[in-house]
Known about the structure:
Blueprint: E1 5-9, H1 20-23, E2 30-31, E3 34-35, H2 36-46, E4 51-56, H3 60-67, E5 74-79, H4 85-97, E6 102-106, E7 110-112, H5 119-126, E8 133-139, E9 143-144, E10 153-154, E11 160-161, E12 171-179, H6 195-204, E13 207-211, E14 215-217, H7 222-235
Parallel strand pairs: 1-4, 1-6, 4-5, 8-13, 9-14
Antiparallel strand pairs: 2-3, 6-12, 7-14, 8-12, 10-11
Amino acid sequence: xxxxxxxxxxxxxxxxxxxxxxxxxxxxxxxxxxxxxxxxxxxxxxxxxxxxxxxxxxxxxxxxxxxxxxxxxxxxxxxxxxxxxxxxxxxxxxxxxxxxxxxxxxxxxxxxxxxxxxxxxxxxxxxxxxxxxxxxxxxxxxxxxxxxxxxxxxxxxxxxxxxxxxxxxxxxxxxxxxxxxxxxxxxxxxxxxxxxxxxxxxxxxxxxxxxxxxxxxxxxxxxxxxxxxxxxxxxxxxxxx
Length: 241
């Protein structure tokens, strides 16, 4: 499956990481000598994505200035006067993303791959056209710094289902996915979460997941950032190898 476009969600405020994000957007936070957003775009380039749409709002000028000299892949900015959240942000950028399936990635994530195919290559190999959404899932025990109840259950065929209210789920969705543009049909541009579309896909039986077997880092607070930087320094590896 050739996927030639991707989107990086970089419009959020990163409020839980304050005060660091008061003066710097979270995607520009550096770990092991490179910003998180550069590492994400590097991964997209490795799987031969030609064009990356980056939505910006909070400190958007800093992100655009940081990326303006990057020549590969081609960077397109989707500027939001009002933050449109994840779903609205992707819908707003859909004309640039095209009619074929595309990657969508949060702009503030880090992971450590296992040997073999990388995260995005695994998603590509798993995708097929009966899917509307294929989400990367990580067992809750493998998410460093995460204290929540998880997001989904996943069966042997990869179908995802939310747990009953108040119940724990074994997997966390970590903000990396392939989406088909048909999932956005009938939606109007306004602030809304991609969760709305995941629920829609679950009802139609077109919501799937694939497991990432390596570690994932939930860089949600200054303390978690310190721990993440320490882990990579201790293991002498670069994030997203």
